[in-house]
């Protein structure tokens, strides 16, 4: 029995490495392969120009690998987001090199539709088949959780619900009273001091320590007791109890730190998002420019005052930015006190009411996106006066300014 377990553990690590490799390569293969397939349908099979383009697509699709254990909706949505990122990258390269016109627009359009569908279907297949393959081959690791804390329960729930982690939960080790264990719904294998003996006499491959930060002496003693076992040991920070649920690990010159409040868009993420915003805003402004000219003429002709309404709002990191909108009212308030628009507000012009109802007054904000002050998707910016009011009433309100404000926010989506 022990020999079989040892063999299983020996074969597990390469298998999980192959799963990680598959996660990293599935999207690049799907997008580059679908591009070559669409090119072949247009009689361009083997064309060196499209082979080079396919290699470029392969490289652009490599960052942000998929997670097989994600939900199906997230997998399909991720395929379309990846397509937008890759397409934006190609557009930037085309503008920079001047080779954008060298490719058939029918091929590119067909690939933009076909590629995400292929990637989504392959993601779906991988999501369904990977757990079956792992179960049939017997690839899994036995795991235990130390501490029935909220963090420990979250780890246990993740192991139980996800079929692609390659782990099976044996149970908890906790010092609580037995009646409290029943509420957890998972077997309690013993008290924490009994874990080391259990790990030496049972096939325990992974140990997750989910004790509160105040239990440092017990944690250090536990680590010392586990030194003569072969189990992999992970420490689960008690972020749930300290309101750090959105924190993430980082490093400062090799020193591990926890980012408690930081923008999610750093490094390559920031470059990709800003590049996408710039390209998308430029394309959208080109397409809607006739409509914007017509609205500008209508605003000027129907009421006195400027065409654009300019108002200071908070942007990234709380910096004041000037946001543009088509003027929809007879006043242009931009001070410390601003009167909120009410139903049937007489300050709103007839044309302004239509623009506000259809959100057409927001179109000039694509100029803000080109300026780098806003993003296409992000928290909606509020007037400075309203912002100062909300930050006093809503705990953590200013965290929204760790990203650029957006034309469209979650409420609109």
TrEMBL record:
Keyword Signal carried by entry: no
Cellular localization per UniProt: Membrane
Molecular-function GO terms, alphabetical: undecaprenyl-phosphate glucose phosphotransferase activity
List all membrane-crossing ranges: 49-68, 80-102, 108-126, 278-299
Recorded topology in the membrane: Multi-pass membrane protein
Identify which top EC class this enzyme belongs to. Answer: transferase
The UniProt keyword set, sorted, is: Membrane, Transferase, Transmembrane, Transmembrane helix
Known EC number: 2.7.8.31
Q: Where is the Bacterial sugar transferase domain?
A: 273-413
Q: Which GO terms describe its cellular component?
A: membrane
Q: Which domain of life is it from?
A: Bacteria
Q: What is its main location?
A: membrane
Question: GO biological process annotations for this chain's record?
Answer: colanic acid biosynthetic process
Instruction: Give the similarity note.
Output: Belongs to the bacterial sugar transferase family.
Record's protein name: Undecaprenyl-phosphate glucose phosphotransferase
Q: What is the lineage of its organism?
A: Bacteria, Pseudomonadati, Pseudomonadota, Betaproteobacteria, Rhodocyclales
